[in-house]
Specification:
This protein is of the alpha/beta class. The chain is built from 26 helices and 20 strands. Strand 10 and strand 11 form a beta hairpin. The protein is globular, with a radius of gyration of 30 Å. The two termini are 31 Å apart. 42% of the residues are buried.
Amino acid sequence: MQYKYHWNLAATRKQMTENPAVKAIADDLGVTLPTAQLLVNRGCTTPEEARSFLAKEEEQLHDPFLMKDMDRAVERIVAAIESKERIIIYGDYDVDGVTSTTCLYLYLASRGADVGYFIPSRAGEGYGVSEGAVRRLAEEGCRLIVTVDTGVTATAEVASARELGVDVVVTDHHECHENLPEAEAVVNPRRPDCLYPFKELAGVGVVFKLLCALEAVLCPDDGMMDCVRRIAKEYGDLVAIGTVADVMPIRDENRLIVSYGLALMENTERPGLVELIEATRMESRATIRRKITASYIGYTIAPRINAAGRIRDASLAVELLLAKDCDSAAPLARQLCDINRERQEQENRIMEEAYAKIAAEHDFERDPVIVLAAENWHHGIIGIVASRITEKYGCPSILVSFEGAGPEKKPEDPGKGSGRSVKGLNLVEALSSCADLLEKYGGHELAAGLTVKRENLDAFKRRLNEYARERLNPCEMIPELDAECELEAADLTLEQAAELYSLEPYGVSNPVPVFILRDASVMEVTPVGGGRHTRVTLRTGGRIVTAMCFRMTARELDLYPGDTADVLFTLDVNEFQNQKTVQLIVKDIRLTEDRMKAENRERELYELFRTGKTLRGLASAQAVIPTREDFAEIYGLLRRQLEADRDSFTVRALSYLAANAGRPVGYIKMKVILLTFRELGLFGVERLSGEPEFFAFRRIVTRGKVDLTTAAVYRKIMSDFGQG
């Protein structure tokens, strides 16, 4: 048995306490050693550098006109405003697209423009600009389309718009193809010929720069910084939401924009956000509103905005953010929360079905990529489930849905797929190797989408795995988790948790701090959330602390009271009934290294025994030969569990139950007992696939006494030690 993840630790406890830079920063800034270590991990070597990092003094906003085609975009948009041409904002259906659309719409409307917006449906038009939508907009009188968070690859669609007499201004942040669309302007910092110094703006970040440039042109008597301040004050909250949700690096301009936006959201007066924050509070039954952080956006606000575009209509989210008063915003906010719950329910259903398919269909020894297909999986949700699968199994995964294909399965039915990958396999390059089997594909190294006909699915799965086998080393596929430093019990305080806010905003390039706690004693393991999550109560250094394991079932954890565990976690503050307590949000929890080695040693000994070798001289008879009392205890234990409709257990779970009943039974003994029961027909014993090692049990009614010595497995363990 091996650990699920490999942990990378930036600084051990000893390294942290002995680092002079850490001590100097802690003493000079009056912060704890762990906080000082976090600053060192972020490149601060002196107190002055640490102070500058916290004050965000090194970051600066760049001149928007440094971006290629910004002047042309502004000129065309201003002309459309002044001549009252119909302007349509063409956005994407994710959070970045929704916030981009909202920002530009609000600004153009405030300038008296004749403006509307259009966001395609995920299930209908699909991602990106479509010629059909462009034609409809032209027929409705549109004369200028401004794309936001999309459009940089829409070469044919932009050409079609020109033929229809519609000009197009593209604003985007995605990777460019070799040929750009022949638009009035293509504003994208990732253009190869764009000299803009910061390339990693979100789509809404590009729109923010566009608004700053428009404001500067429309207010020529004001300085650029005055214009930027006005735009930031008016739209900084929306820009922050889109930037965080699109997982952009939180550095350079993004760090300033998100920091300012979070501060605005703390006291927001935007009706849509006021009501969405309140609706999430009511939904979670929290008595007070949570502090607005990047994590709060990522895990609470963004999923609700995103859910509209995933399974309904992203325009619902736009209308919420455009709402002029709380009365009109409140029902929309509640509707988004309802849609998000529906999304969660569908996600859970698809996950359960996917896990069942993996258990029944996938051969982990042969195929490094999990490819699953179904008829009724929602296209807007399979990407989330693919992420969960890759996280759970540590290998690339692709889910394909033939949703809407109808009851009759046809070879030409198109299946839409979404995939996630791991380090070492560029997913777009892998799909490119199968391009002749796909209708279309695209994406990034670790995430991609595709369309494949039903008749090509099996060949695609085979070819993709052939490609992956040549490039993926199974030893390198163990996923990695990074930790900043080790904490001790004395560090688990509200003061330490509060200090972490000073490093906000968190995100890519400034990740949420992850810590390691060693040698914590497990006191309780409690399923919560209908069994989907688990609460583990730990004792460490005389303190009791709660560790929340989200999307980890108690069965998967396979930990029990009395175990000693190491925990990899983020530090959080739980607020309940006006009481604040520290809690750990677990990313991984596992047996300590010493405990794991001891248990693996037992497994190795059992494997020797199973393959016909003797254990004599390697273990004591007392440790490996079960007594009649051991057999009786486990027999009674299993019978009671089956009577209570509990029929599957790990060996560790059975050992815990036996120990709790006053009769500890080790791994080898337990395996011998279970195999003896199966051989003698006392129980049906079936090993289930996967890790940890699960067995399913079925009681078989027998008559009279059973002679244990007639079981071959029991006779062998006895004879190994000369007792047969």
